[in-house]
């Protein structure tokens, strides 16, 4: 009889095949529901009990939604959870009504109720979906999954693997999810950092490969607050897309790739390790030690010999911002957090001191406001170019995410690099982004360290 560990390993291998093939496309079209529900899954190593999570279809990550570029995504989200929920399609330029932000674009879906999401996926790439009601709790409990939009002509690879990186804060005795979601220490520091790191829900994911195999790795950081510094070992690779959006030219990945919460990276990698060795996607640990995030045990050699540098992915429609002439200047100053200089901020129209704010679960402010305000950061006209300076006066990094539109970074007064939806702004750093306000509606701009968003780091823009 197989032990629990090997049994789980086999199950995972079967699932891994199922989610990476094009075949599943048909099946996922047929089942148009996505049930958010409680489930019991084995997250922690053998010997530990199973963990009760909240997951789409009872899994974390939830099922991979795969469509062709330009196709519709239709899902009836059924809420079988004990509290209201909603689903946000992170990075997809959806119609505002489908953006899934409870309290802004829709009412949260009550337990026992459902909501029909229906939108077109205009851009190919690696995206994800996650809960957007009480997200600092619901995403931490497991409510997220990959959303893959395939190019009409995908790059030639032997395998296409989606790797959802996550961490879980579990009680070390019971392996149950630690429910101190509102813990002031986490909220006012780096956010909720887990003590069990997983890929696709497994702490020891292993993907057997042959030498010279070419893989496309779609990395998604679904954690609440953990920044993953990643490296390749026994693999030669290139970054071909960031946040789903293609790079103009593949960039060799020789150094560290930093993946902030909510960010994605598409890599094309060739297995260079020889049979009997194990290649790794490596995570740089706290003490700077490399740890295996995903193992790729190598057996045999594929018929292929080493291949040429991959071609760039086909560009997505929409050019983003190209010129800053006439761009409307906006500014966002981030303050607060532990060891910060925020003495006071506005909450409910009142100026409160740091302690009074903390007593109400507010630790951060955007432009002196410790909450999302009734009026937007900016009222933008459709088609208006915008440049937004982001001033991080805190001593923590923040992963800033814009809904509904993609931006480019502005460096030396010029928009550069690929379009993105999430930018990591380091402590005490100022960065600038530019975008064209081409999607009508109310769009959030917030920190994706989700407990930061909840405790003050959230604002929005209106495009009409
Ligand atoms: Cu990925 Cu406002 O969210
Ligand atoms: Cu933050």
Automatic annotation (TrEMBL):
Residue stretches spanning the membrane: none
Pfam families: Cu-oxidase_2, Cu-oxidase_3
Single annotated GO MF: copper ion binding
Top-level division of the source organism's lineage: Bacteria
Domain Plastocyanin-like stretches: 42-152, 362-463
Keywords associated with the record: Metal-binding, Oxidoreductase
The keyword Metal-binding belongs to this UniProt entry's keyword annotation: yes
Keyword check for Metal-binding: yes
Protein name: Multicopper oxidase family protein
Source organism (scientific name): Aquicoccus porphyridii
Lineage, opening ranks: Bacteria, Pseudomonadati, Pseudomonadota, Alphaproteobacteria, Rhodobacterales
């Amino acid at each position: 009889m197989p032990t629990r560990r090997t049994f789980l390993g086999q199950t995972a291998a079967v699932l891994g095949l199922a989610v990476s093939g094009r075949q599943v496309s048909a099946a996922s079209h047929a089942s148009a529901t996505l049930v958010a529900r409680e489930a019991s899954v084995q997250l922690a190593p053998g010997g530990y009990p199973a963990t009760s999570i909240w997951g789409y279809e009872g899994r974390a990550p939830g099922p991979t939604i795969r469509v062709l570029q330009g196709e519709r995504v239709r899902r009836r989200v059924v809420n079988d959870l004990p509290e209201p929920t909603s689903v946000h399609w992170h990075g997809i330029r959806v119609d505002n009504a489908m953006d899934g932000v409870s309290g802004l674009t829709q009412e949260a879906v009550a337990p026992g109720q459902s909501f029909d999401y229906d939108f077109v996926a205009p851009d190919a790439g690696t995206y994800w979906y996650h809960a957007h009601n009480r997200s600092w709790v619901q995403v931490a409990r497991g409510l997220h999954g990959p959303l893959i939009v395939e190019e009409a002509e995908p790059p030639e690879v032997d395998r296409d693997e989606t790797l959802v990186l996550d961490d879980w804060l579990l009680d070390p005795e019971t392996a149950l999810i630690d429910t101190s979601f509102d813990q002031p220490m986490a909220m006012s520091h780096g956010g909720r950092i887990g003590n069990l790191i997983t890929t696709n829900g497994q702490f020891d994911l292993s993907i057997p490969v042959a030498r010279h195999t070419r893989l496309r790795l779609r990395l998604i950081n679904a954690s609440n607050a953990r920044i993953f510094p990643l490296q390749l070992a026994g693999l030669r690779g290139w970054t071909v897309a960031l946040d789903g959006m293609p790079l103009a030219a593949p960039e060799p990945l020789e150094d560290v790739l930093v993946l902030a919460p909510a960010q994605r990276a598409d890599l094309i990698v060739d297995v260079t390790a020889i049979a009997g060795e194990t290649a790794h996607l490596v995570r740089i640990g706290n003490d700077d030690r490399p740890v295996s995030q995903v193992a790729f045990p190598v057996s045999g050699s594929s018929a292929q010999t080493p291949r040429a540098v991959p071609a760039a992915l086909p560009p997505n429609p929409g050019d983003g911002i190209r010129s800053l002439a006439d761009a409307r200047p906006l500014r966002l100053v981030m303050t607060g957090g532990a060891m910060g200089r925020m003495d006071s901020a506005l909450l409910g129209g009142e100026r409160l001191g740091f302690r009074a704010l903390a007593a109400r679960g507010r630790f951060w402010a955007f432009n002196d406001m410790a909450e999302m305000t009734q009026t937007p950061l900016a009222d933008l006209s459709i088609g208006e170019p915008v440049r937004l300076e982001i001033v991080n006066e805190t001593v923590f990094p923040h992963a800033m995410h814009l809904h509904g539109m993609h931006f480019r970074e502005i460096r030396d007064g010029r928009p550069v690099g690929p379009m993105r939806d999430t930018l990591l702004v380091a402590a005490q750093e100022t960065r600038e982004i530019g975008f064209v306000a081409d999607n009508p509606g109310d769009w959030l701009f917030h920190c994706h360290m989700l407990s930061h968003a909840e405790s003050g780091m959230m604002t929005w823009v209106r495009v009409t």
